[in-house]
Amino acid sequence: MIPAETLTGRRVRLRRWRETDVDTLLQVVSESLDHLRPWMLWAVPPYDRAAATDFLTRAQAGWLEGESYAYAITVPGVTVGACGLERRIGPGALEIGYWLHPAHTGSGLATEAAAILVEQAFALPAVDRVQIWHDLANTTSAGVPRRLGFTEVARHTPPRNPPSPGEVGVDVVWELTAEENSRSGVLC
């Protein structure tokens, strides 16, 4: 079983990225570079058509291989960011990642997108835990797992990836188990 290609919450809709989304991705990333650069190594200018095409090609391959599921975060008529589920933290687990265009931060859209992904993750067979990782300095990203009832389970130094310019080099790991989720019921 694979995740649904479209997932809908109250305000956001998650839609699987398609190779035809090059112009949309290029625009939303280009407009977000200054906002993303402190936290994401890939967010460096110039983010061009080739970089967008490469991401979309890798996103399609990841989906087909069952290793990652990348979604556009949309609100009516507008793509406002990206999120996804990735199988990079071991058996029975998926990791959630997310980012938003700066014009759409601070209104709970990332939290809603992550909540939708939590529900999708636990609907998949053999998934018993979900994690969110972020750098210690990224206190905005820390708010998402905290609001969704995740528990901080680890801090890793050195981090698994080289630090981005705004990072301090400490990975903070948050986790939610299927059992915890069934008791509390993450709502979107």
Q: How much β-strand is present in the residues? A: 25-35%
Predict the CATH topology: Aminopeptidase
- The H/E string reads EEHHEEEHEHEEH
**What is the CATH-assigned architecture?**
3-Layer(aba) Sandwich
Question: Main sheet, how many strands, which sense, barrel?
Answer: 8 strands, mixed
Secondary structure: number of strands = 8
Mean pLDDT: 95
Contiguous low-pLDDT stretches (5 residues minimum) are none
Strand order of the largest sheet: 1-2-3-4-5-6-8-7
| Termini gap | 22 Å
* Spatial shape: globular
Count of discrete alpha- or pi-helical segments spanning 4 or more residues = 5
- What number of domains? 1
Rg for CA atoms? 16 Å
| Helix/strand class | alpha+beta
DSSP helix fraction = 25-40%
CATH superfamily: Gcn5-related N-acetyltransferase (GNAT)
| CATH class term | Alpha Beta
